Request: fold
Amino acid sequence: MLKKIIHLPSPVSATALIIAIALSVVPTPGESRPSGSSLRLLEEFKRTTVFWQQREIADQLVAAHDPAILPELLPWLTNEDRHLRANAAYVFARYGDKRGFEVICAILKDRADRPEGQGSVGPFSVLTSENDPNEASNWRKAHQLDWQIPADRYYAVGVLASLRDPRAVPILIPLLNDKEVAIRRSVGARADWRQKGYRTIDQ
Reply:
């Protein structure tokens, strides 16, 4: 009758196995976890979806001087809300990670379809009518990209300028004549839509 032979590990091989397992869970040099205070800020950043409030937390993350936070923010660089994406990119850029600068610049050129986001409710003063109280809401839905893309680009300009990065200068200068993102667009938007015969809230 054949007997099964069970090979027990020698003391040397067992020790080597334990060391190998231990090394597999120990961070390699250069890898680290965010500190406790940074983790709290990260959780707050992720919970906060109002762009200007999240931006304030982004500044705190930068002030924490903890580069270990960046891997935690990586998914935010592709967030469908371009305002929140720009906030995450701002943190990357301030830490010297080139991906941050690149993402902000990409938003300026991005005219892809997107869901309704933040930064505007229409061309400054959304259309309204005493005869149809739903007109403003219906107009926003029908023309959502007409105002969402300029709002996203406008916010990206502000974020890019706040970096005070010399590379941004040749990008920002041409935008002074860009009607969608120029600071004076507030006046232009009202005038353009009034010329088209629309009644705006502030009229």
Observations:
- The two ends are 101 Å apart (CA to CA).
- Confidence is low (pLDDT under 50) at residues 1-6, 17-30, 183-191, 198-203.
